[in-house]
Specification:
The protein is α+β, with helices and mostly antiparallel strands and 204 residues long. The protein is built from six helices and nine strands; from the N terminus they run E-H-E-H-E-E-E-H-E-E-E-H-E-H-H. It starts with 13 loop residues before the first strand and ends in a 16-residue tail after the last helix.
Length: 204
C-alpha cells in the first residue's frame, strides 16, 4: 500500500443536476453518442427522502457511465450564473479533424450549432451549449490523436493564444483539399476568422 507518493487517478465520470432529464439525455445522445445504461425514476414515497426524483447513467464507451444526471424538478435557471463559481466546461476529444468537422455538419443538420470555434495552438475546438447551458467542448490534438507529449511541450513552451475560426470556412477549405495542419496554420494566421467574432464573455 502506497502511503507516501501521490497516485494519478484518471477522470472517470462527472455528475450534473438538471430539471430537464429527457432533454439532456436526448442532447448528449445526439452530440456525443451517449447511451443510457440505467435510468431510474424514484417512486413517489422515496422522493420525500431523496434530493432528486430520477437519475440516469450514460456513456459513449465501454465504461458503465461517463456522466450521471440527477433530476431535481424544482430547479430554476440562474440569471447570474456567469458571475458564480462553477464548472466552466467539459471537453471530449475526437480522433481526427474530419471527425470533428463531420460532427459539426451532422449536428448543424439537427439544429445544434456551436457557440464558437477556436484554435488553441495545440488543438482545434468547437464549443456547444447543452439544454442547461453547460459548455461542452469537442476538440482534436493538432499533433495527432494520442500525441500528448508534443501537445504538452507546446503548452509549456509556446506563448498562450487562441484564434477564433468560422467552422464553415474551415469545412470549405478542407473539402477543397487543405490538410489538417494547413488548416491549423491558416486558422492561427487569421485566414478563417468569423465575420462576427464571438464575445468571449458570453457563455464563459
Amino acid at each position: 500500500m502506497n502511503t507516501e507518493v501521490t497516485i494519478h487517478p484518471k477522470l472517470q465520470h462527472y455528475g450534473l443536476i438538471t430539471s430537464n432529464l429527457d432533454a439532456m439525455i436526448n442532447w448528449y445522445g445526439k452530440v456525443l453518442g451517449m447511451a443510457v445504461n440505467r435510468r431510474t425514476d424514484l417512486p413517489e414515497a422515496a422522493r420525500n427522502r431523496a434530493p432528486f426524483s430520477a437519475f440516469a447513467f450514460i456513456s459513449n464507451d465501454e465504461v458503465h457511465h461517463r456522466i450521471v444526471f440527477f433530476e431535481v424538478p424544482a430547479l430554476v435557471d440562474d440569471p447570474d450564473k456567469s458571475r458564480h463559481a462553477r464548472l466552466q466546461h467539459v471537453a471530449f476529444e475526437c480522433r481526427t479533424l474530419d471527425d470533428l468537422l463531420g460532427t459539426y455538419v451532422r449536428l448543424k443538420s439537427l439544429g445544434i450549432v456551436p457557440l464558437w470555434g477556436a484554435d488553441h495552438g495545440l488543438g482545434i475546438s468547437l464549443y456547444y451549449a447543452d439544454p442547461d447551458q453547460n459548455v461542452i467542448e469537442l476538440n482534436i490534438n493538432n499533433y495527432g490523436y494520442g500525441d500528448e507529449w508534443t501537445a504538452t511541450e507546446h503548452m509549456r513552451t509556446s506563448p498562450p493564444g487562441m484564434t477564433y475560426f468560422d467552422p464553415e470556412k474551415m469545412l470549405a477549405a478542407r473539402k477543397a483539399g487543405a490538410s489538417p495542419w494547413n488548416l491549423h496554420q491558416r486558422a492561427i494566421a487569421g485566414e478563417l476568422t468569423p465575420t462576427t467574432p464571438p464575445d468571449p464573455r458570453v457563455h464563459f
